[in-house]
Specification:
disordered N terminus, 4-stranded mixed beta sheet, Ubiquitin-like (UB roll), 618 residues, 28 strands
Length: 618
Amino acid sequence: MLPKHTVQTHTKPHLPPHPQHDPQHHLQHLQVDWQAHPAQLISGSARAGVCALVLAGALLAATLHVKADVLVEGIDATLAGPVRAGLSLRSDCTQPRWQIRHRFREAEGEIRGILETFGYYTPSVEPGLDFTAECFNARFLVNTGPPTLIREADVTLSGSGAELDVFRDLVDNSTVRQGARFDHRLYEAYKTTFEDVAARYGFLDARFTTQQVVVNVQEFTADIELRYDTGPRHGFGNVTYDTDAIEHRLLARYLPFESGDPYDADLLIEFYQSLTGSGYFEDVSVQPMDPVDAVIPIQVNLTPGKSRQSRVGLGISTDIGPNLTLGQTNRLVNQRGHQMSLDANWAPVQSELGGYYRVPQPDISNGWYSLYGGFQREDTETSKTSSTSIGIRKLTPRGNQWVQTLFLELNNDHFEVARETQDRFYAVPGVNLSYTKTDRTVARPGRAHHIGFELSGADEALGSAISFISAELQARLVHSLTPRIRFLGRFRVGLIHTHDFGRLPPRVRFFSGGDSRVRGYDYETIGVTDALGNVIGGDRLIEYSTELDLAFKPKWAAALFFDAGNVSLGSYEGDFSRAVGIGLRWYSPIGPLRLDLARPIGAEISGVRLHVSLGPDV
């Protein structure tokens, strides 16, 4: 009968699942039986002399920074690295020679044991050891021998989860399959994956009823047999909250599951993130408890945050100049979760006083009804506007980062364009759809994108002084080309349909130019001009920008960009205003600060303009 090597493995008892399940991996340890220390056989005076020599040698080695050569040769780096790391023989010249020799003798067995974990059961090792005046050189020439291949891999499932897709995928797409090289690490990791899936989906009684590997050393084959019984699947139990600061029916809107639904730990993570992002709480804990009658109760511990928050901010932008911001928000007006905020912003070009009061939608996580209003003043090179607004919004998340906002806004604008002063009252219903995906935890994200679309309008038949329909689409993209170089793209297109463009308020019309539009031009100075050369805006808009930035220090980057924009009337025809420039980025604690120098291309205006702005890329 051919010799065989049988491995019998066992699993740990299951622990109750947790939203952030972190499986423990089995580690194999090498045991070494140490012999008596040679120093115990030396007389006291001799021992003192030996110690003195060892100390002198250590000091000399430390002074010269000498390191020993411990070489593992004959095998590729994927094996040589783990083998070298697993040796007890270190590249340390301060070791006594008796210890070096002892560890050198142990090294061959250590190498064989390490290679076994990779499926090489018949390796050969040719060791070599030389001592020099300062240190030593050790060399191990290794021949792995043929790899052990999996001849049979019999993996079967039983229990109520046997037909669950995630378990079937583990069987159908196994890394432990016929013809593959047998690797103990992959085998153990494969078994751990079953335990991870079981813990995530609430199969608390799941276990391996059979787990066996039979290795035929002479034939270089391994036969694997795994029998996994998932047992019954548990469900979600009741959710218990430890606070009365907010009505429990409001908290229930953040639940992505109902009592009795099949358990899924990822839904607990989603629940936790929704509670954390609600703005109500300083600390959130979502903990599954011990199962009761095949369901897992959920305990939620919540620490309400400070309800009132005040804000004071200073900033600067070449569009609007230096600005001062004051604000206060009450994140928890009452137990029904109402919120309110008041903000005042002042800058030479644009100032605003406004606020909102919002009420959570009862059945939609992070959905809100908002009543808002305010007063705004804007004084640019092309127009002057004083506006009073009041409106209502319904904000509803649509899944996968999409947000829908329905709104109805009443506006009363007093404005001056091209030396003509007008007053307009208009009611604007509309809808906005937006999608944003970025990592706000880092100042310079490697990947991010945003898409936004808004459709709005007004009609004289509904009491407005003007009629129009406005549509606007915009997109932003950030994509890393290398770890240090990013591409940033920006695109915006707009259309207004109206029978009397001259009656539209400036904030309804399209203008371009400025820090975030077309750099190289002053704020809102790009637009159609009248017979006297006054910029009056337009009803068509196209803007785009491309930029490369290069990080040269952890918080600094340089940029090269090209911007272009066109504002026209009646069609998208006309020349584009274009500019090129260079920039500097500083990723401050409050967001990226941009300093750009931009020069228009082929325009009547000339010179270089400085643009300063602050805010995220997306």
